[in-house]
Protein backbone atom coordinates (compact mmCIF):
# COMPACT_ATOMS: atom_id res chain seq x y z
CA UNK A 1 0.00 0.00 0.00
CA UNK A 2 1.35 3.43 -0.99
CA UNK A 3 0.34 7.05 -0.48
CA UNK A 4 1.98 8.92 -3.34
CA UNK A 5 1.19 12.48 -4.42
CA UNK A 6 3.25 15.38 -5.67
CA UNK A 7 2.31 18.90 -6.68
CA UNK A 8 -1.37 18.42 -5.89
CA UNK A 9 -1.28 21.56 -3.73
CA UNK A 10 -2.84 19.94 -0.69
CA UNK A 11 -3.18 22.47 2.13
CA UNK A 12 -3.80 22.34 5.86
CA UNK A 13 -2.50 19.90 8.45
CA UNK A 14 -1.56 16.31 7.81
CA UNK A 15 -4.25 14.29 9.63
CA UNK A 16 -3.33 11.61 12.19
CA UNK A 17 -2.07 8.43 10.56
CA UNK A 18 -4.08 5.40 11.70
CA UNK A 19 -5.22 2.03 10.42
CA UNK A 20 -2.60 1.72 7.70
CA UNK A 21 -0.57 -1.31 8.82
CA UNK A 22 0.57 -2.10 5.25
CA UNK A 23 1.55 1.44 4.19
CA UNK A 24 5.10 1.34 2.80
CA UNK A 25 5.49 4.64 0.96
CA UNK A 26 4.34 8.06 2.22
CA UNK A 27 5.23 10.49 -0.58
CA UNK A 28 3.65 13.94 -0.19
CA UNK A 29 6.37 16.29 -1.39
CA UNK A 30 5.66 19.52 -3.21
CA UNK A 31 2.35 20.48 -1.61
CA UNK A 32 1.37 23.19 0.89
CA UNK A 33 0.83 21.07 3.96
CA UNK A 34 1.48 22.89 7.23
CA UNK A 35 1.46 22.39 10.98
CA UNK A 36 3.37 19.65 12.77
CA UNK A 37 4.32 16.28 11.37
CA UNK A 38 2.05 14.08 13.50
CA UNK A 39 3.64 11.73 16.04
CA UNK A 40 1.13 9.15 14.84
CA UNK A 41 3.35 8.56 11.82
CA UNK A 42 4.85 5.75 13.87
CA UNK A 43 1.56 3.84 13.52
CA UNK A 44 2.52 3.06 9.93
CA UNK A 45 5.16 0.66 11.18
CA UNK A 46 5.91 -0.84 7.74
CA UNK A 47 6.94 2.46 6.14
CA UNK A 48 10.05 2.26 3.98
CA UNK A 49 10.09 5.71 2.41
CA UNK A 50 8.87 9.00 3.88
CA UNK A 51 9.04 12.12 1.70
CA UNK A 52 7.37 15.25 3.10
CA UNK A 53 9.74 17.68 1.42
CA UNK A 54 8.87 21.05 -0.09
CA UNK A 55 5.87 21.77 2.15
CA UNK A 56 5.20 24.24 4.98
CA UNK A 57 5.59 21.91 7.95
CA UNK A 58 6.83 23.52 11.18
CA UNK A 59 7.63 22.49 14.71
CA UNK A 60 9.90 19.64 15.81
CA UNK A 61 10.83 16.63 13.74
CA UNK A 62 9.07 13.85 15.66
CA UNK A 63 11.30 11.37 17.43
CA UNK A 64 8.60 8.74 16.85
CA UNK A 65 10.22 8.30 13.43
CA UNK A 66 12.58 5.98 15.27
CA UNK A 67 9.73 3.48 15.61
CA UNK A 68 9.72 2.92 11.86
CA UNK A 69 12.01 -0.10 11.97
CA UNK A 70 11.78 -0.70 8.19
CA UNK A 71 12.54 2.92 7.21
CA UNK A 72 15.04 3.20 4.34
CA UNK A 73 14.68 6.80 3.24
CA UNK A 74 13.67 9.99 5.08
CA UNK A 75 13.33 13.20 3.08
CA UNK A 76 11.86 16.29 4.73
CA UNK A 77 13.69 19.08 2.89
CA UNK A 78 12.58 22.70 2.56
CA UNK A 79 10.16 23.09 5.45
CA UNK A 80 10.31 25.08 8.70
CA UNK A 81 11.14 22.16 10.93
CA UNK A 82 13.32 22.36 14.03
CA UNK A 83 15.43 19.63 15.59
CA UNK A 84 13.61 18.62 18.75
CA UNK A 85 11.45 20.52 21.20
CA UNK A 86 10.90 24.22 20.70
CA UNK A 87 13.13 25.00 23.69
CA UNK A 88 16.11 22.65 23.76
CA UNK A 89 16.86 22.43 20.02
CA UNK A 90 18.36 18.97 20.51
CA UNK A 91 18.43 16.50 17.63
CA UNK A 92 16.23 14.07 19.54
CA UNK A 93 14.78 12.71 16.30
CA UNK A 94 18.26 11.79 15.07
CA UNK A 95 19.12 9.77 18.16
CA UNK A 96 15.84 7.86 17.77
CA UNK A 97 16.71 6.95 14.17
CA UNK A 98 19.40 4.64 15.54
CA UNK A 99 16.56 2.09 15.76
CA UNK A 100 16.13 2.16 11.97
CA UNK A 101 18.63 -0.47 10.93
CA UNK A 102 17.84 -0.26 7.20
CA UNK A 103 18.05 3.54 6.90
CA UNK A 104 20.08 4.57 3.81
CA UNK A 105 19.18 8.23 3.32
CA UNK A 106 18.55 11.15 5.68
CA UNK A 107 17.80 14.39 3.84
CA UNK A 108 16.86 17.32 6.10
CA UNK A 109 18.27 20.25 4.08
CA UNK A 110 16.47 23.60 4.03
CA UNK A 111 15.02 23.56 7.55
CA UNK A 112 15.60 25.59 10.73
CA UNK A 113 17.63 23.09 12.72
CA UNK A 114 19.92 25.92 13.98
CA UNK A 115 21.93 23.87 16.44
CA UNK A 116 25.24 22.11 16.86
CA UNK A 117 25.85 18.87 14.97
CA UNK A 118 25.09 16.22 17.61
CA UNK A 119 27.65 13.77 18.92
CA UNK A 120 25.33 10.79 18.71
CA UNK A 121 25.31 10.86 14.91
CA UNK A 122 27.55 7.81 15.21
CA UNK A 123 24.67 5.72 16.48
CA UNK A 124 22.94 5.78 13.10
CA UNK A 125 22.40 2.77 10.88
CA UNK A 126 25.44 0.94 9.54
CA UNK A 127 23.71 1.02 6.15
CA UNK A 128 23.50 4.85 6.01
CA UNK A 129 24.82 6.15 2.68
CA UNK A 130 23.52 9.72 2.37
CA UNK A 131 23.30 12.47 4.98
CA UNK A 132 22.24 15.90 3.67
CA UNK A 133 21.84 18.84 6.05
CA UNK A 134 22.63 21.90 3.93
CA UNK A 135 20.95 25.28 4.54
CA UNK A 136 19.88 24.28 8.04
CA UNK A 137 21.52 27.15 9.97
CA UNK A 138 23.79 24.66 11.75
CA UNK A 139 26.17 26.35 14.17
CA UNK A 140 29.29 25.54 16.15
CA UNK A 141 32.15 23.21 15.30
CA UNK A 142 32.15 19.97 13.43
CA UNK A 143 33.15 17.73 16.37
CA UNK A 144 36.92 17.23 16.23
CA UNK A 145 36.62 13.71 17.65
CA UNK A 146 34.13 12.80 14.97
CA UNK A 147 36.07 9.61 14.28
CA UNK A 148 35.27 8.35 17.75
CA UNK A 149 31.74 9.71 17.60
CA UNK A 150 31.08 7.71 14.45
CA UNK A 151 31.96 4.51 16.32
CA UNK A 152 35.45 4.69 14.84
CA UNK A 153 33.57 4.81 11.56
CA UNK A 154 32.47 1.21 11.89
CA UNK A 155 28.94 2.59 11.97
CA UNK A 156 29.27 4.87 8.94
CA UNK A 157 31.84 3.22 6.73
CA UNK A 158 29.14 2.94 4.07
CA UNK A 159 28.52 6.72 3.98
CA UNK A 160 28.77 7.88 0.35
CA UNK A 161 27.57 11.51 0.51
CA UNK A 162 27.84 14.10 3.29
CA UNK A 163 26.47 17.60 2.67
CA UNK A 164 26.83 20.23 5.41
CA UNK A 165 27.07 23.20 3.04
CA UNK A 166 25.47 26.63 3.46
CA UNK A 167 25.41 26.64 7.25
CA UNK A 168 27.17 28.57 10.02
CA UNK A 169 29.72 25.95 10.99
CA UNK A 170 33.11 27.16 12.20
CA UNK A 171 36.29 25.69 13.58
CA UNK A 172 38.52 23.18 11.79
CA UNK A 173 37.79 20.36 9.36
CA UNK A 174 38.34 17.20 11.43
CA UNK A 175 41.33 15.01 10.56
CA UNK A 176 39.18 12.01 11.38
CA UNK A 177 37.04 12.46 8.27
CA UNK A 178 39.51 10.07 6.66
CA UNK A 179 37.66 7.23 8.37
CA UNK A 180 34.70 7.67 6.02
CA UNK A 181 36.33 5.22 3.64
CA UNK A 182 33.40 4.98 1.17
CA UNK A 183 32.89 8.73 0.86
CA UNK A 184 32.40 10.00 -2.71
CA UNK A 185 30.79 13.39 -2.05
CA UNK A 186 31.77 15.94 0.64
CA UNK A 187 30.36 19.48 0.53
CA UNK A 188 31.33 21.96 3.28
CA UNK A 189 31.09 25.16 1.23
CA UNK A 190 29.58 28.43 2.44
CA UNK A 191 30.42 28.07 6.13
CA UNK A 192 33.03 29.87 8.25
CA UNK A 193 35.47 26.97 8.64
CA UNK A 194 39.09 27.90 9.36
CA UNK A 195 42.47 26.21 9.65
CA UNK A 196 43.97 23.87 7.07
CA UNK A 197 42.53 21.19 4.81
CA UNK A 198 43.69 17.95 6.48
CA UNK A 199 46.13 15.89 4.39
CA UNK A 200 44.47 12.83 5.89
CA UNK A 201 41.64 13.34 3.38
CA UNK A 202 44.01 12.18 0.65
CA UNK A 203 43.28 8.65 1.92
CA UNK A 204 39.67 8.84 0.69
CA UNK A 205 40.12 6.74 -2.43
CA UNK A 206 36.60 7.23 -3.80
CA UNK A 207 36.14 10.94 -3.11
CA UNK A 208 35.25 12.55 -6.45
CA UNK A 209 33.41 15.69 -5.32
CA UNK A 210 34.91 18.01 -2.72
CA UNK A 211 33.87 21.59 -2.04
CA UNK A 212 35.20 23.88 0.68
CA UNK A 213 34.73 27.15 -1.20
CA UNK A 214 33.54 30.28 0.62
CA UNK A 215 35.17 29.53 3.98
CA UNK A 216 38.20 30.93 5.86
CA UNK A 217 40.66 28.14 5.23
CA UNK A 218 44.41 28.62 4.97
CA UNK A 219 47.60 26.70 4.29
CA UNK A 220 48.60 24.26 1.59
CA UNK A 221 45.96 22.42 -0.41
CA UNK A 222 46.67 18.66 -0.44
CA UNK A 223 47.72 17.40 -3.87
CA UNK A 224 47.97 13.63 -3.57
CA UNK A 225 45.31 10.94 -3.93
CA UNK A 226 41.83 12.18 -4.75
CA UNK A 227 42.99 15.82 -4.64
CA UNK A 228 44.81 15.43 -7.95
CA UNK A 229 41.40 15.43 -9.69
CA UNK A 230 39.78 18.49 -8.04
CA UNK A 231 39.55 21.83 -9.84
CA UNK A 232 39.78 25.39 -8.58
CA UNK A 233 36.03 25.58 -7.93
CA UNK A 234 36.53 23.30 -4.92
CA UNK A 235 38.61 25.93 -3.12
CA UNK A 236 37.31 29.37 -4.21
CA UNK A 237 36.97 32.35 -1.89
CA UNK A 238 39.05 31.28 1.10
CA UNK A 239 41.34 33.55 3.08
CA UNK A 240 44.81 32.11 2.63
CA UNK A 241 44.97 28.83 0.74
CA UNK A 242 48.03 28.11 -1.38
CA UNK A 243 48.96 25.40 -3.84
CA UNK A 244 49.62 24.61 -7.52
CA UNK A 245 48.78 27.23 -10.19
CA UNK A 246 45.97 25.12 -11.72
CA UNK A 247 43.90 25.74 -8.56
CA UNK A 248 44.13 29.52 -9.04
CA UNK A 249 45.71 30.11 -5.62
CA UNK A 250 49.10 31.63 -4.71
CA UNK A 251 52.08 29.25 -4.54
CA UNK A 252 53.04 28.05 -1.08
CA UNK A 253 56.12 29.54 0.53
CA UNK A 254 58.80 27.10 1.64
CA UNK A 255 62.35 27.11 2.89
CA UNK A 256 63.92 25.50 -0.16
CA UNK A 257 67.45 26.73 0.53
CA UNK A 258 67.51 25.53 4.11
CA UNK A 259 65.89 22.23 3.20
CA UNK A 260 68.36 21.62 0.38
CA UNK A 261 71.32 21.93 2.75
CA UNK A 262 69.75 19.37 5.08
CA UNK A 263 69.03 17.03 2.16
CA UNK A 264 72.66 17.23 0.93
CA UNK A 265 74.00 16.49 4.41
CA UNK A 266 71.70 13.49 4.83
CA UNK A 267 72.55 12.24 1.35
CA UNK A 268 76.26 11.95 2.13
CA UNK A 269 75.65 10.53 5.56
CA UNK A 270 72.93 8.00 4.78
CA UNK A 271 72.11 8.11 1.09
CA UNK A 272 75.15 6.60 -0.65
CA UNK A 273 74.76 3.09 0.77
CA UNK A 274 71.14 3.08 -0.39
CA UNK A 275 71.85 4.02 -4.01
CA UNK A 276 72.71 0.44 -4.92
CA UNK A 277 69.41 -0.78 -3.48
CA UNK A 278 67.49 1.88 -5.41
CA UNK A 279 69.15 0.89 -8.70
CA UNK A 280 68.21 -2.75 -8.14
CA UNK A 281 64.61 -1.80 -7.36
CA UNK A 282 64.36 0.31 -10.51
CA UNK A 283 65.70 -2.57 -12.60
CA UNK A 284 63.19 -5.02 -11.11
CA UNK A 285 60.33 -2.54 -11.67
CA UNK A 286 61.23 -2.15 -15.35
CA UNK A 287 61.35 -5.92 -15.85
CA UNK A 288 58.00 -6.35 -14.08
CA UNK A 289 56.29 -3.73 -16.23
CA UNK A 290 57.63 -5.33 -19.42
CA UNK A 291 56.19 -8.65 -18.36
CA UNK A 292 52.92 -6.97 -17.42
CA UNK A 293 52.65 -5.32 -20.84
CA UNK A 294 53.16 -8.67 -22.53
CA UNK A 295 50.41 -10.24 -20.48
CA UNK A 296 47.93 -7.42 -21.07
CA UNK A 297 48.55 -7.28 -24.81
CA UNK A 298 46.73 -10.60 -25.33
CA UNK A 299 43.36 -10.32 -27.14
CA UNK A 300 40.28 -10.08 -24.93
CA UNK A 301 37.77 -12.81 -25.72
CA UNK A 302 34.91 -11.60 -23.54
CA UNK A 303 32.20 -9.37 -25.01
CA UNK A 304 32.83 -6.76 -22.34
CA UNK A 305 34.62 -3.44 -22.32
CA UNK A 306 35.19 -2.58 -18.67
CA UNK A 307 34.94 1.00 -17.42
CA UNK A 308 36.87 1.35 -14.17
CA UNK A 309 34.90 -1.51 -12.67
CA UNK A 310 35.26 -5.18 -11.89
CA UNK A 311 31.61 -5.88 -12.61
CA UNK A 312 31.20 -8.26 -15.52
CA UNK A 313 27.94 -8.19 -17.50
CA UNK A 314 27.26 -10.19 -20.65
CA UNK A 315 24.80 -9.70 -23.48
CA UNK A 316 22.76 -12.61 -22.09
CA UNK A 317 22.51 -10.99 -18.63
CA UNK A 318 21.36 -7.70 -20.13
CA UNK A 319 18.71 -9.52 -22.15
CA UNK A 320 17.48 -11.28 -19.01
CA UNK A 321 17.47 -7.98 -17.09
CA UNK A 322 15.09 -6.45 -19.65
CA UNK A 323 12.94 -9.53 -20.38
CA UNK A 324 14.48 -9.82 -23.82
CA UNK A 325 14.58 -6.04 -24.35
CA UNK A 326 10.81 -6.02 -24.13
CA UNK A 327 9.10 -2.86 -25.36
CA UNK A 328 7.34 -2.33 -22.00
CA UNK A 329 10.78 -1.81 -20.44
CA UNK A 330 11.80 0.85 -22.96
CA UNK A 331 12.45 4.25 -21.36
CA UNK A 332 13.11 6.14 -24.58
CA UNK A 333 14.92 6.23 -27.90
CA UNK A 334 17.42 8.50 -29.58
CA UNK A 335 19.43 8.93 -32.76
CA UNK A 336 21.69 5.97 -32.08
CA UNK A 337 19.54 3.45 -30.22
CA UNK A 338 17.21 2.72 -27.31
CA UNK A 339 17.27 2.94 -23.52
CA UNK A 340 15.68 0.21 -21.40
CA UNK A 341 15.00 -0.16 -17.72
CA UNK A 342 16.48 -3.36 -16.35
CA UNK A 343 16.94 -5.24 -13.11
CA UNK A 344 20.20 -7.14 -12.72
CA UNK A 345 20.48 -10.51 -11.02
CA UNK A 346 21.53 -8.84 -7.74
CA UNK A 347 18.38 -6.66 -7.76
CA UNK A 348 20.05 -3.43 -8.90
CA UNK A 349 17.86 -1.25 -11.13
CA UNK A 350 19.78 0.12 -14.11
CA UNK A 351 19.24 1.93 -17.38
CA UNK A 352 20.67 0.07 -20.38
CA UNK A 353 21.49 2.11 -23.46
CA UNK A 354 21.62 -0.21 -26.48
CA UNK A 355 23.24 1.14 -29.65
CA UNK A 356 21.61 0.24 -32.96
CA UNK A 357 24.40 -1.14 -35.15
CA UNK A 358 22.25 -0.57 -38.26
CA UNK A 359 22.29 3.20 -37.66
CA UNK A 360 25.23 4.98 -39.25
CA UNK A 361 27.53 6.40 -36.61
CA UNK A 362 25.96 4.51 -33.68
CA UNK A 363 29.01 2.44 -32.81
CA UNK A 364 31.24 5.48 -33.20
CA UNK A 365 28.94 7.22 -30.71
CA UNK A 366 29.43 4.26 -28.35
CA UNK A 367 33.21 4.63 -28.57
CA UNK A 368 32.97 8.37 -27.90
CA UNK A 369 30.82 7.83 -24.81
CA UNK A 370 33.22 5.20 -23.50
CA UNK A 371 36.19 7.51 -23.98
CA UNK A 372 34.38 10.46 -22.43
CA UNK A 373 33.00 8.60 -19.43
CA UNK A 374 35.87 6.23 -18.74
CA UNK A 375 37.41 8.42 -16.02
CA UNK A 376 34.50 10.66 -15.04
CA UNK A 377 32.93 10.20 -11.63
CA UNK A 378 30.85 13.15 -10.51
CA UNK A 379 27.65 13.69 -8.57
CA UNK A 380 25.99 15.53 -11.47
CA UNK A 381 27.09 13.27 -14.31
CA UNK A 382 25.30 9.99 -15.03
CA UNK A 383 27.37 7.15 -13.63
CA UNK A 384 28.40 4.38 -16.02
CA UNK A 385 28.45 1.02 -14.21
CA UNK A 386 30.01 -0.84 -17.13
CA UNK A 387 29.47 -1.51 -20.81
CA UNK A 388 29.07 -4.57 -22.99
CA UNK A 389 30.76 -4.78 -26.40
CA UNK A 390 30.87 -7.40 -29.15
CA UNK A 391 30.97 -7.36 -32.93
CA UNK A 392 27.25 -6.66 -33.35
CA UNK A 393 26.11 -5.57 -29.90
CA UNK A 394 27.15 -2.59 -27.79
CA UNK A 395 25.46 -1.23 -24.68
CA UNK A 396 26.18 1.08 -21.76
CA UNK A 397 24.88 0.14 -18.31
CA UNK A 398 24.00 3.31 -16.40
CA UNK A 399 22.57 4.34 -13.05
CA UNK A 400 18.78 4.35 -13.22
CA UNK A 401 17.16 7.75 -12.68
CA UNK A 402 13.70 7.27 -11.19
CA UNK A 403 12.39 10.77 -11.96
CA UNK A 404 13.02 10.64 -15.68
CA UNK A 405 14.39 13.60 -17.58
CA UNK A 406 13.92 17.35 -17.43
CA UNK A 407 12.01 17.51 -20.71
CA UNK A 408 9.26 15.30 -19.27
CA UNK A 409 8.95 17.56 -16.23
CA UNK A 410 8.79 20.71 -18.35
CA UNK A 411 6.30 19.53 -20.95
CA UNK A 412 4.07 17.02 -19.16
CA UNK A 413 0.70 18.15 -17.84
CA UNK A 414 1.10 16.01 -14.73
CA UNK A 415 4.46 17.48 -13.65
CA UNK A 416 5.55 20.85 -12.33
CA UNK A 417 8.84 22.29 -11.11
CA UNK A 418 8.84 25.38 -8.92
CA UNK A 419 11.39 28.16 -9.31
CA UNK A 420 13.77 26.82 -6.67
CA UNK A 421 13.82 23.36 -8.23
CA UNK A 422 14.59 24.85 -11.63
CA UNK A 423 17.41 26.98 -10.22
CA UNK A 424 18.81 23.91 -8.43
CA UNK A 425 18.77 21.98 -11.71
CA UNK A 426 20.58 24.85 -13.45
CA UNK A 427 23.26 24.78 -10.76
CA UNK A 428 23.63 21.00 -11.01
CA UNK A 429 24.06 21.19 -14.79
CA UNK A 430 26.50 24.13 -14.57
CA UNK A 431 28.62 22.32 -11.97
CA UNK A 432 28.74 19.24 -14.22
CA UNK A 433 29.78 21.26 -17.28
CA UNK A 434 32.42 23.14 -15.30
CA UNK A 435 33.82 19.79 -14.19
CA UNK A 436 33.94 18.58 -17.81
CA UNK A 437 35.76 21.74 -18.88
CA UNK A 438 38.21 22.03 -16.01
CA UNK A 439 38.25 18.83 -13.98
CA UNK A 440 40.59 16.79 -16.17
CA UNK A 441 43.67 17.34 -18.39
CA UNK A 442 41.48 16.36 -21.36
CA UNK A 443 38.72 18.94 -21.80
CA UNK A 444 35.33 17.40 -22.62
CA UNK A 445 32.78 19.42 -24.60
CA UNK A 446 29.35 17.78 -24.28
CA UNK A 447 27.80 19.34 -27.43
CA UNK A 448 24.28 18.11 -26.62
CA UNK A 449 23.06 19.87 -23.48
CA UNK A 450 19.26 19.86 -23.67
CA UNK A 451 16.43 18.94 -21.24
CA UNK A 452 16.04 15.38 -22.55
CA UNK A 453 19.67 14.70 -21.63
CA UNK A 454 19.29 16.00 -18.06
CA UNK A 455 18.21 13.11 -15.87
CA UNK A 456 16.72 13.43 -12.39
CA UNK A 457 17.26 10.97 -9.56
CA UNK A 458 14.87 10.20 -6.72
CA UNK A 459 16.01 13.35 -4.87
CA UNK A 460 15.54 15.53 -7.99
CA UNK A 461 19.29 16.00 -8.30
CA UNK A 462 20.19 16.59 -11.96
CA UNK A 463 22.67 14.40 -13.83
CA UNK A 464 24.05 15.19 -17.30
CA UNK A 465 23.87 12.20 -19.65
CA UNK A 466 24.30 11.18 -23.30
CA UNK A 467 27.86 11.94 -24.36
CA UNK A 468 27.31 10.43 -27.83
CA UNK A 469 28.53 13.48 -29.77
CA UNK A 470 30.92 14.84 -27.16
CA UNK A 471 34.32 16.18 -28.17
CA UNK A 472 37.50 15.47 -26.26
CA UNK A 473 40.09 18.21 -26.69
CA UNK A 474 43.65 16.99 -26.43
CA UNK A 475 46.54 18.87 -24.92
CA UNK A 476 47.27 22.09 -26.80
CA UNK A 477 43.80 22.50 -28.24
CA UNK A 478 42.06 25.71 -27.26
CA UNK A 479 38.42 25.22 -26.36
CA UNK A 480 37.35 28.75 -27.26
CA UNK A 481 38.71 28.36 -30.80
CA UNK A 482 37.11 24.98 -31.44
CA UNK A 483 34.14 24.93 -33.77
CA UNK A 484 31.52 22.59 -32.30
CA UNK A 485 28.61 21.02 -34.15
CA UNK A 486 25.80 20.49 -31.70
CA UNK A 487 22.06 20.17 -31.41
CA UNK A 488 19.86 23.24 -31.28
CA UNK A 489 19.10 23.90 -27.65
CA UNK A 490 19.60 26.34 -24.84
CA UNK A 491 19.02 24.84 -21.42
CA UNK A 492 18.23 27.94 -19.38
CA UNK A 493 15.67 29.54 -21.76
CA UNK A 494 13.73 26.32 -22.21
CA UNK A 495 13.79 25.49 -18.48
CA UNK A 496 12.23 28.83 -17.50
CA UNK A 497 10.14 29.64 -20.58
CA UNK A 498 8.93 26.09 -21.37
CA UNK A 499 9.43 26.91 -25.05
CA UNK A 500 11.42 24.49 -27.19
CA UNK A 501 14.02 25.88 -29.61
CA UNK A 502 12.22 23.94 -32.36
CA UNK A 503 8.78 25.51 -31.74
CA UNK A 504 7.01 27.04 -34.73
CA UNK A 505 7.50 30.43 -33.11
CA UNK A 506 11.15 30.21 -34.08
CA UNK A 507 11.94 30.07 -37.77
CA UNK A 508 14.73 31.17 -40.08
CA UNK A 509 16.75 33.88 -38.36
CA UNK A 510 14.46 34.10 -35.30
CA UNK A 511 15.92 31.70 -32.73
CA UNK A 512 14.88 31.22 -29.13
CA UNK A 513 17.92 33.26 -28.15
CA UNK A 514 16.96 36.19 -30.41
CA UNK A 515 13.40 36.06 -29.14
CA UNK A 516 14.55 36.09 -25.55
CA UNK A 517 17.03 38.91 -26.17
CA UNK A 518 14.28 41.08 -27.67
CA UNK A 519 11.62 40.18 -25.09
CA UNK A 520 13.64 40.32 -21.88
CA UNK A 521 13.80 44.16 -21.66
CA UNK A 522 9.99 44.16 -21.45
CA UNK A 523 10.13 42.09 -18.28
CA UNK A 524 10.35 38.43 -17.26
CA UNK A 525 6.57 38.08 -17.47
CA UNK A 526 6.89 38.32 -21.26
CA UNK A 527 8.99 35.18 -21.53
CA UNK A 528 8.50 33.11 -18.36
CA UNK A 529 6.51 29.89 -18.15
CA UNK A 530 2.97 31.01 -17.28
CA UNK A 531 2.72 28.36 -14.56
CA UNK A 532 5.93 29.61 -12.96
CA UNK A 533 5.33 33.37 -12.86
CA UNK A 534 1.93 35.04 -12.42
CA UNK A 535 1.28 38.69 -11.65
CA UNK A 536 -0.86 37.72 -8.68
CA UNK A 537 2.02 35.76 -7.09
CA UNK A 538 2.92 36.91 -3.59
CA UNK A 539 6.59 37.10 -4.50
CA UNK A 540 6.14 38.16 -8.12
CA UNK A 541 8.94 40.75 -8.12
CA UNK A 542 11.46 38.44 -6.42
CA UNK A 543 10.73 35.60 -8.84
CA UNK A 544 10.78 37.92 -11.84
CA UNK A 545 14.18 39.29 -10.82
CA UNK A 546 15.50 35.77 -10.39
CA UNK A 547 14.32 34.68 -13.84
CA UNK A 548 15.67 37.86 -15.46
CA UNK A 549 19.08 37.34 -13.85
CA UNK A 550 19.27 33.75 -15.12
CA UNK A 551 18.15 34.77 -18.61
CA UNK A 552 20.85 37.46 -18.71
CA UNK A 553 23.36 34.82 -17.73
CA UNK A 554 21.99 32.49 -20.41
CA UNK A 555 22.43 35.17 -23.07
CA UNK A 556 26.00 35.64 -21.95
CA UNK A 557 26.72 31.90 -22.10
CA UNK A 558 25.29 31.58 -25.61
CA UNK A 559 26.99 34.61 -27.18
CA UNK A 560 27.81 34.12 -30.86
CA UNK A 561 31.54 34.66 -30.40
CA UNK A 562 33.13 32.03 -28.13
CA UNK A 563 35.48 34.56 -26.57
CA UNK A 564 32.48 36.59 -25.40
CA UNK A 565 31.00 33.70 -23.44
CA UNK A 566 31.28 33.49 -19.67
CA UNK A 567 33.61 30.89 -18.17
CA UNK A 568 31.72 28.04 -16.50
CA UNK A 569 33.54 28.62 -13.19
CA UNK A 570 32.00 32.09 -13.09
CA UNK A 571 28.62 30.77 -14.20
CA UNK A 572 28.48 28.42 -11.21
CA UNK A 573 29.32 31.26 -8.84
CA UNK A 574 26.67 33.54 -10.39
CA UNK A 575 23.95 30.91 -10.24
CA UNK A 576 24.65 30.24 -6.56
CA UNK A 577 24.44 33.98 -5.86
CA UNK A 578 21.09 34.13 -7.66
CA UNK A 579 19.82 31.21 -5.58
CA UNK A 580 20.95 32.84 -2.31
CA UNK A 581 19.13 36.07 -3.21
CA UNK A 582 16.01 34.08 -4.03
CA UNK A 583 16.04 32.15 -0.75
CA UNK A 584 16.81 35.24 1.30
CA UNK A 585 13.73 36.99 -0.06
CA UNK A 586 11.24 34.14 -0.13
CA UNK A 587 10.48 32.11 2.96
CA UNK A 588 8.69 29.30 1.16
CA UNK A 589 9.32 28.56 -2.48
Quick description:
The protein has 589 residues and is an alpha/beta fold. It has 11 helices and 28 strands. The chain folds into 4 domains: 2-247, Ribonuclease Inhibitor (Leucine-rich repeat, LRR (right-handed beta-alpha superhelix)), CATH 3.80.10; 254-298; 304-399, Phosphorylase Kinase, domain 1 (2-Layer Sandwich); 408-439 and 488-585, no CATH class.
Describe the SSE topology.
Blueprint: E1 2-4, E2 11-13, E3 25-27, E4 32-35, E5 49-51, E6 56-60, E7 73-75, E8 80-82, H1 92-96, E9 105-107, E10 130-132, E11 139-141, H2 146-149, E12 161-163, E13 168-171, E14 185-187, E15 192-195, E16 209-211, E17 216-220, E18 240-242, H3 256-296, E19 304-305, H4 315-321, E20 330-334, E21 337-343, E22 349-355, H5 362-373, E23 384-389, E24 394-399, H6 406-411, H7 419-438, E25 443-445, E26 454-456, E27 462-464, E28 471-473, H8 491-497, H9 512-519, H10 540-557, H11 568-585
Parallel strand pairs: 1-3, 2-4, 3-5, 4-6, 5-7, 6-8, 7-9, 9-10, 10-12, 11-13, 12-14, 13-15, 14-16, 15-17, 17-18
Antiparallel strand pairs: 19-23, 20-21, 21-22, 22-24, 23-24, 25-28, 26-27
Helix pairs in contact: 7-11, 8-10, 10-11
